[in-house]
Design brief:
By secondary structure, this protein is α/β, with parallel strands linked by helices. It has two domains: about 20-45 and about 160-340, Rossmann fold (3-Layer(aba) Sandwich), CATH 3.40.50.1100; about 50-155, Rossmann fold (3-Layer(aba) Sandwich), CATH 3.40.50.1100. It is built from eleven helices and ten strands. The chain has helices at about 20-25, 50-65, 80-90, 110-115, 130-145, 165-180, 195-205, 220-240, 265-280, 290-300, 325-340, and strands spanning about 20, 35-40, 70-75, 95-100, 120-125, 150, 185-190, 210-215, 250-255, 310-315. The strands form two sheets. Strands 1-2-10-7-8-9 form a six-stranded mixed sheet, with helices on both faces. Strands 5-4-3-6 form a four-stranded parallel sheet, with helices on both faces. It is globular and about 65 Å long. About 45% of the residues are buried. Bound molecules: pyridoxal-5'-phosphate (PLP).
């Protein structure tokens, strides 16, 4: 694939490792081998999937003379924290429009946002998405009136520029596959704003590779992601007309793992996260990677991947989002202690 890349900044620690999930899958002769693409290791504070997208978005912001980034997400958004970290590193201002209540004692990602010097405005969850574009416009005008130039970065940095992050990650994965002598049948990721899945899906489509990319949605539904991924790819095609646009793009979404909603974690999910940490030394988060990895395991049990030899799980980060769940984990531990005492 000879793509004409736009400028990118070197912000992430790349390439990330592709590691076997050894105890669970390699020691089980009946299970497909699972490999984990460790994008939780893209950096210590810039960790996770967003930094790959921000390498391209921040370059575009600087190239268009912006000195400010405005973006949005939940109060515990990993994307907002990564954007705040990038802005601090580049000497840009950053303003975050956050969905949900401000925390009296900031925790996890919000604590880091504030340490990075982000300007933070919180809004009620109700009708947040409906009003977001107006809020972006209003704030951008405010910065302009004050003599600044702000770029509005969409939720999750998922757009026609951000898609380059995982389009180039697909290139990296193909090099991993070659080095390890594997050709995985499936690549599975959490999908939240669609950009990670969109980039990988586009990468496969452009390369004619036989792997299938699956997004396990942690919010919204299949129809939403089909539409969002098509939109991101269409925007990419319009912005970068020197690149070939694939005729067929195969978008695969696995539904059924959102539970009671975005950010809601069941005791079963928390137990799974604990088991993965104990058995594999792998930390997953309750909002994205925990749900997606749990979904992958359940789908293997149900037989969806019966024919597969090798499956890649893209670990998209999210560790700081784990800390605000400390009470739920403590409750879980008390339950375990009570059960052990009763035996
Ligand atoms: C840790 C983590 N994993 C996965 C995702 C989903 O990625 P995307 O927004 O590209 O769908 C996000 C953000 O939404 C995230 O923060």
């Amino acid at each position: 694939m000879s793509l004409v890349y736009p400028r990118r900044l070197a912000l992430a620690s790349l390439p990330t490792p592709l590691e076997p999930l050894r105890r669970w899958s390699f020691d089980n002769p009946h299970a497909p081998r699972i490999w984990v693409k460790r994008d939780d290791l893209t950096g210590s504070l810039l960790s996770g999937n967003k930094v790959r997208k921000l390498e391209f978005i921040a370059a575009a912001a600087l190239d268009s003379g912006c000195d400010t980034l405005i973006t949005s997400g939940g109060v515990q958004s990993n994307h907002c924290r990564a954007t705040a970290a990038v802005a601090a590193r580049l000497g840009l201002k950053v303003h975050l429009l956050l969905r949900g209540d401000d925390e009296d004692i900031p925790d996890g990602n919000l604590l880091l946002d504030l340490l990075f010097g982000a300007e933070v405005t919180c809004f009620p969850k109700r009708n947040f998405s409906d009003r977001l574009n107006d809020r972006y416009d209003q704030l951008q005008r405010q910065y302009s009136d004050a003599g600044h130039k702000a770029m509005c970065v969409p939720i999750g940095a998922s757009n026609g520029i951000g898609i380059w992050g995982y389009l180039s990650a697909w290139d990296e994965l193909m090099q991993d596959f070659e080095r390890l002598g594997i050709s995985p049948d499936h690549v599975v990721t959490a999908t939240g704003s669609g950009g990670t899945q969109a980039g990988l899906t586009l990468g496969v489509a452009l390369n004619g590779n036989s792997s299938r990319v699956w997004g396990i949605n942690v919010c919204d539904d299949e129809a939403y992601f089909r539409n969002k991924i098509a939109e991101d790819i269409a925007e990419w095609a319009a912005l970068y007309p020197n690149n070939r646009v694939p005729e067929n793009v195969d978008v695969n979404v696995i539904e059924g793992y959102v539970g009671k909603g975005y950010g809601h974690a069941t005791p079963e999910l928390l137990r799974f996260i604990q088991a993965m940490a104990t058995c594999e030394g792998l930390i997953l988060d309750p909002v994205y990677t925990g749900k997606a990895c749990y979904g992958l395991f359940k789908e293997i049990e149900k037989g969806r991947f019966d024919e597969a030899d090798d499956i890649v799980f893209v670990h998209t980060g999210g560790v700081f989002g784990l800390y605000p769940y400390r009470e739920q984990f403590a409750r879980l531990q008390r339950l375990v202690d009570t059960e052990v005492a009763a035996e």
